[in-house]
Write a structure and sequence with these properties.
With about 290 residues, the protein is of the alpha+beta class. It is about 25% helix and about 30% strand. Helix 2 crosses helix 3. The chain binds pyridoxal-5'-phosphate (PLP). Pyridoxal-5'-phosphate binds next to helix 5.
């Protein structure tokens, strides 16, 4: 991964190493940080900042709920993205904002005032066509009653990491987690949709499913295209009944899913999946 030479750090664009936390920071030891993931698309001659305001609002809200109060508002963060983009080569980039603690703290301390914020960028490839192979993970999705999954708390992402690691080691691209009730939840960092007779089915937001912005966009786009869409519980035993599947997220965009465990689908050729992908891409090529 080649991260940007420069980062927006506490209001200024600086060499990214200036944003490094102390080795004794409780962000490093306890995972006390909140982050987000956004994409700035380079479209021929201009940046298209995809749902950037929505991402920054989510980031700002999550940081506040984790007592990582930022002295910068959403508008200042959006200005910071502009400053960062000005330093980048003209190609599509993933932007990672993070609110964290740089000071040495080690032990639990609440009421800490030293919150820093940083945004850096990583170049990415867009519009990837290949289908994704998913493992049905033995790693259970962290319960929202343990850690609220609507804030992207860094420490909670050890859960996604363990799911992803197990899947990659077994030769899959990613893993799909069940919740504690044994229902299909989501992939390690993407939401899932299934197709049944041209109807889209996605796990309902039961608290354990991350309310992804891409998920919400696809739901809006499906409704606008008169595609029937159902948010409901999805049991692993139903997987063979579906015709196709897709996963979605800001970084992964929309990708066909060719299998979950030993259930296979020709998702890349499914007309509903193709429609969803085409419509999503139209919204990013603006
Ligand atoms: C656990 C998890 N699920 C789903 C998603 C997809 O969310 P979004 O579409 O907002 O990127 C993400 C990415 O942020 C995630 O971390």
């Amino acid at each position: 991964m080649k991260m940007s030479e420069r980062a927006w750090f506490n209001g200024q664009v600086v060499p990214h190493h200036s944003a490094d936390p102390s080795v004794a920071s409780n962000t490093l030891h306890l995972g006390i940080a909140v982050f987000d993931g956004c994409v700035a698309y380079w479209n021929d001659d201009h940046w298209h900042q995809h749902l950037m305001r929505e991402h920054m609002e989510r980031f700002h809200r999550g940081a506040a709920r984790m007592d990582l109060a930022l002295p910068w508002g959403v508008e200042e963060l959006l200005d910071g993205v502009h400053l960062l983009l000005d330093t980048l080569p003209r190609r599509t980039h993933y932007i990672r904002p993070i609110a964290y603690r740089t000071a040495p703290e080690v032990f639990f301390s609440v009421d800490v005032e030293s919150t820093s914020a940083c945004m850096f960028a990583v170049p990415i490839t867009r519009d990837v066509d290949g289908a994704v192979r998913c493992q049905l993970s033995s790693v259970e999705r962290v319960r929202h009653t343990a850690i609220d999954v609507t804030w992207k708390v860094s420490g909670a992402y050890a859960n996604s990491y363990l799911c992803e690691r197990e899947a990659r080691r077994a030769g899959f691209d990613t893993g799909v987690m069940l919740n504690s009730a044994g229902l299909i939840c989501e992939a390690s960092s993407s939401n899932l949709f299934f197709v049944a007779d041209r109807t889209l089915v996605t796990p309902r937001l039961d608290g354990d499913v991350f309310p992804g912005l891409t998920r919400a966009l696809l739901i809006d786009q499906a409704r606008a295209a008169d595609i029937t869409l159902v948010e409901r519980d999805v049991h692993p035993a139903e997987l063979p009944n579906f015709d196709a599947a897709l996963l979605c997220g800001t970084l992964s965009e929309v990708r066909p899913v060719s299998c979950i465990g030993d259930v296979n689908w020709p998702s890349a050729d499914d007309p509903t999946v193709r429609h969803v992908i085409d419509r999503f891409r139209r919204s990013t090529h603006r």
